[in-house]
Amino acid sequence: MNEFFITATDTDAGKTYVARALVTALVNQGKQVAVYKPVSAGCELIDGELVNEDASLLQASANCRQSISQINPIAFAEPIAPHIAAEQLAQQITLPEIMAGYEQVKKVNADVVITEGAGGWRLPLGQGHYLSEFAKQAGHKVILVVNMKLGCLNHAMLTYEAIIADGLECIGWVANCQQDMPYLEENIAHLRQLLPAAFIARLEYCRDIDKAAASIDTSALV
Ligand SMILES: Nc1ncnc2c1ncn2[C@@H]1O[C@H](COP(=O)(O)OP(=O)(O)OP(=O)(O)O)[C@@H](O)[C@H]1O
Ligand SMILES: C[C@H](N)[C@H](N)CCCCCC(=O)O
Ligand SMILES: [Mg+2]
């Protein structure tokens, strides 16, 4: 089983978008693909269950018939930093809970599991822990989504450095070009030189996820 963790330069950078495109590309190659979104904040209450949009979108792209609660075991209603949402409810987000949720996902026996983080690499869980520790404990390979906008060079480099300093492998990065950026080509060219990871995709603004999927080079993932 191949296991990947999607992180990004920031929240709203395109992790879910890239994860959906990647899942779609792998499903189109005939793979069984499962998904995991361990922690979410920003949910709708549907039939008594907190449903996060990322989890629903990932569920719709994947092909392992997972429930929303299996995909996203830790969910908070408010769209805020998850550990603050937990604090407000006098709850704690713990790594064992996140690992236990992942054990359930592994039982699906998929060929590939794509996990989407929340926020950026160093997302706090509270009590001095971070979501990056889950990626490390689970031994995931990391894919970095760079939201192409002014300031992304610094964010991309710092994120890459933190992934490596944590002892994980960053196997690839995606340039997510969802907005106009002056000198976009130059910025991408510099990142290709600066980031020692495979350039997996350049994604333009596009609402058609199948088109985005077709732009992904999955060869670095095998
Ligand atoms: N290349 C793109 N083309 C069109 N829309 C995009 C693209 N990239 C991202 N978006 C849209 O931008 C918004 C933010 O992207 P997304 O939800 O994937 O970010 P995220 O990193 O997953 O955020 P979060 O930290 O909340 O999980 C979404 O509405 C998404 O559909
Ligand atoms: C609500 C938002 N869309 C994400 N789900 C959570 C982003 C948390 C970011 C925390 C931080 O690093 O400041
Ligand atoms: Mg997301």
Total domain units: 1
Would you report the number of β strands? Answer: 12
Shape annotation: globular
Radius of gyration: 16 Å
Q: For the terminal residues, how far apart are their CA atoms?
A: 10 Å
At CATH level 3, the topology is Rossmann fold
Helix content: 25-40%
Q: What portion of residues belong to β-strands?
A: 25-35%
- State the fourth-level CATH superfamily: P-loop containing nucleotide triphosphate hydrolases
Helix/strand order? EHEEEEHHEHHEEEHEHEHEH
CATH architecture: 3-Layer(aba) Sandwich
Bound molecules: adenosine-5'-triphosphate, 7,8-diamino-nonanoic acid, magnesium ion
Our count of helices gives 9
Q: Numbering strands along the chain, what is their spatial order in the largest sheet?
A: 2-7-1-10-11-12
Could you list the spans in which at least 5 consecutive residues all have pLDDT below 50? none
Report the biggest beta sheet as strand number plus sense, adding barrel if it closes: 6 strands, parallel
* Mean pLDDT over all positions: 98
CATH class: Alpha Beta
Counting helices, strands and paired strands, the structural category is alpha/beta
